[in-house]
Amino acid sequence: MITSLPQAIRKLSPRAQARNPVMFVVYIGAVITTLLAIWQPSWFAWAVTVWLWFTVVFANLAEAVAEGRGRAQADSLRKVKQDTTARRLDDKGATTEVPGSALRIGDLIVVEAGEVIAGDGDVVDGIATVDESAITGESAPVVRESGGDRSAVTGGTVVLSDRIVVKITTAPGETFVDRMIALVEGAARKKTPNEIALDILLTSLTIIFLLAVVAVGPMQQYAGQEPDPIKLIALLVCLIPTTIGALLSSIGIAGMDRLVQRNVLAMSGRAVEAAGDIDTLLMDKTGTITFGNRRATELLGAAGIDAVDLARVAYICSLADDTPEGRSIVELCVGDFAVEEIDPATLAAARAHQHPEYEAVPFTAETRMSGIDRHGREGTVEYRKGAADAVARWVVAGGGEVTASVLEQVERVSSGGATPLMVAVRGSVGADEGSVGAKTGSVGGKVGSVGGGGGGGGVPVVLGVIVLSDVVKPGMSERFAQLRAMGIKTVMVTGDNPLTAKAIAAEAGVDDFVAEATPEDKLALIRKEQSGGRLVAMTGDGTNDAPALAQADVGLAMNTGTSAAKEAGNMVDLDSDPTKLIDVVAIGKQLLITRGALTTFSLANDLAKYFAILPALFSSIYPQLDALNIMHLHSAQSAIVSAVIFNALVIVALIPLSLRGVRYRPAAASRLLGRNLMIYGIGGVITPFLGIWLIDLVVRLLPGMG
Ligand SMILES: Nc1ncnc2c1ncn2[C@@H]1O[C@H](COP(=O)(O)OP(=O)(O)OP(=O)(O)O)[C@@H](O)[C@H]1O
Ligand SMILES: [K+]
Ligand SMILES: [Mg+2]
C-alpha cells in the first residue's frame, strides 16, 4: 500500500475524482472544509478537514493498489514487445528484412529456428515448435502448424525448430501483447453495466442524503441554533456510501487481475461478471476436450480391398490437404504402406491449386469432406474422404451404395472414440493415367468392376475407412463434476459423428453432446439457450467456432487456436485448458459476491453513524436526544471526528478484502446470499458502534474536543 501512495496522491486531480460521484462529493466537501478551516481555524475544523482528505486518498489508494499489481506484469510484457526485424516474403518468394513495426495485416513473414516472431498471425505454411513462455509462463514448447486449429502464433514468441510462414493478422500497436499490457494495467478498463447500475444507485443515495443534510441546517436554525457547515459536511460524508464507492473499482480490477494470475485474459469486465452467472457451457471436442493433434493411425479396407490399395487412394485424397489430419494421412500412407509419392513439382503445384490435373477440394466445416478432382485423359476422377455421414451422402447421391460392412467398420471405430474418415472414389481409375494411375491400377480395376464407371462421372464407390485418433486431456471428468456442483451444464458440440462424440463425451464426463454440428448449428444452439434466459459460455479453438464464441456471453478461446477464434472470444486461456472455465466462473462469482457484500456492509454502517452524529448535532437543542448517545461518546466534536475517522479507516481496512475477494465455495446461491447478508449486514451494523466508540476514547484526548 505504501508503494502505491504516490499514485494515490496523483489521482487527486478533479478530473480523476469526477469519475466517481460518491467520492467526488467527499472531495468537494474536503475542499470546502479546508477553506472554512483556513478562514476560521479551530482544532475541530482541521481534524475534520484532514480526515476528509485521508478519506479521498484512501479511496484512491484502493484503486492504485489494485492497479499496481498489474504493473509489474506489464513491465515484463513490455520486454517481450521489443521491436524485432522480420523477413517479409513477397509474391516471388524472395524475402526482405523489415522492422516489425512496418508489418501490415496480410503480410507474409518467414520465421526460422531461433528467431522471434515479429507479429501476431496464423501459420500458413510449415510446422514448428514455439517457445511461448514469455507470454504464458509455461516453459514447455508448443507445436504450431498450418491448416488446422493450432495455427495462431503470438508476436514476441520464439521459434525453436523448423521454419514457418506466418500471415500477419493484427496491425502493430494492436497486438495480443499490446492488449495484454493495456489489460493488466487497467488502461482498457470500462465500467460494466452492473457497475454502472450500482453507480446509479449509489449516486441516487448520495443525492437523497445531500438533500436530507441540506434540510438539517434550517431545522437547526428554526430551533435557534446556528448550523455549522463543517458538522453538516461531516454528517453527509458519513452517511453517503463511501465504503463501497471507494472500493468499487478496485473490486473490478482485482477480479480481472485474478484471472490474469490464472493465465486467462478477459477482454471485458462484463464477461467476467457474466461468468459468475453461467448456466451452460458449450465446448468443441477436438483441441478443447482432446489434445487436438488428431492423427491417422489405421486404414481399414472395405470388403475385397486391402489396406495397401486403400492407402494409395487415401494418399491421393490427402496430397493437397493442408490440415494436420491430411498431413498425418500422407505420413501414414507413405510411412507404413510404402505408397510412392508423386513428384515434388506436381505436389507443390497441386497444393498451390495450380496443377491442371490435380484439383484440390479443400476441407470445409460445412461439407466435412476433402479430396482431389483428378482431370485425366478419360475424364475426371473424384477422390473424397471425410466424415462418414457426409461421404455416405455423397456416395448415395451419386447412385452408389455404402455396404453394411463399411458401416460396421465406421461404427466400430466411432464407438472406440476415434474418428472414422470414409474414403470413396467416383470415376474410372485406369492403368494408363501416368505414374500415380499405374500405382492405383489395382484399385482402379476393382473400382471399375464394382462401380462399372468408365470415363467421367460413374458411380461412387467406398474403399474403406481411415482411423483418426485423438486423446482426451487428463483430469477432464473430475473437473466437469466440479462444474456440475456449481450448477453448470456442460455440452460438447462437435462436427464429428454421434458415436465418436458419445464415446468421447462418456470418457470426458460431459452432461450432454451434440454431434455433426456445423458452425451454424453451434451458433443456433447458443442462441436457443440464450433465448431461454440462460447465460452461455463457449470454449473453442477453431475458425468454425468463431461465430459461436462471439455470440456466447463468455467466449473463452484456447490460446492454441486460430486467430479468428481468439479475436471472436472475449477471453483467451493461455494454457488452452477448457476446464479453466471453473476458475473463471469462481472468479466471476467471487467478484459479484464481494461487491454485494461490501455494498451491504457500506449501507449497514450508516445506522451507527446516525447514532453517533445526530445526537451530537441536536442534543444541545433537544437534550432528550442524548438518549440516543448509546456509545457515550465524549462530546459533540469528538463524536463527529470519530465518525469521520472510522469512515476513512474502514476503507483502508477493507482494501485487502476487496482485492482478495470474499471466499467462494460451490453452494446454492440462496444459501450464499443468506450467509453473506448475516455476516456483512450484521457485521456492518455492529462494527461501527465498536469502532467509533474505541476511536472516541483516543480522540477525546485531543485538543479542541470539548
Ligand atoms: N482434413 C479433413 N478432410 C476430410 N474430413 C475431415 C478433415 N478433418 C476433419 N474431417 C471430418 O470433418 C468432421 C468435422 O471436423 P471439424 O474439425 O469441423 O470438427 P469441429 O466442428 O471443429 O468439431 P471438433 O473440433 O469438436 O471435432 C470431423 O469429425 C471429420 O470427420
Ligand atoms: K460513508
Ligand atoms: Mg474444432
UniProtKB/TrEMBL annotation:
The keyword Iron does not apply. Its main location: membrane. Mg(2+) binds at residues 541, 545. It is a multi-pass membrane protein. The active site is at residue 284. Pfam families: E1-E2_ATPase, Hydrolase. Its EC number is 7.2.2.6. ATP binds at residues 321, 325, 363-370, 385. Keywords: ATP-binding, Cell membrane, Ion transport, Magnesium, Membrane, Metal-binding, Nucleotide-binding, Phosphoprotein, Potassium, Potassium transport, Translocase, Transmembrane, Transmembrane helix, Transport. It catalyses: K(+)(out) + ATP + H2O = K(+)(in) + ADP + phosphate + H(+). The chain crosses the membrane at residues 21-38, 44-62, 196-220, 232-254, 607-625, 637-657, 677-695. Residues 83-185 form the P-type ATPase A domain. It is found in: Cell membrane. It comes from the Bacteria. Part of the high-affinity ATP-driven potassium transport (or Kdp) system, which catalyzes the hydrolysis of ATP coupled with the electrogenic transport of potassium into the cytoplasm. This subunit is responsible for energy coupling to the transport system and for the release of the potassium ions to the cytoplasm. Belongs to the cation transport ATPase (P-type) (TC 3.A.3) family. Type IA subfamily. The system is composed of three essential subunits: KdpA, KdpB and KdpC. This is Potassium-transporting ATPase ATP-binding subunit. It comes from Gordonia sesuvii.
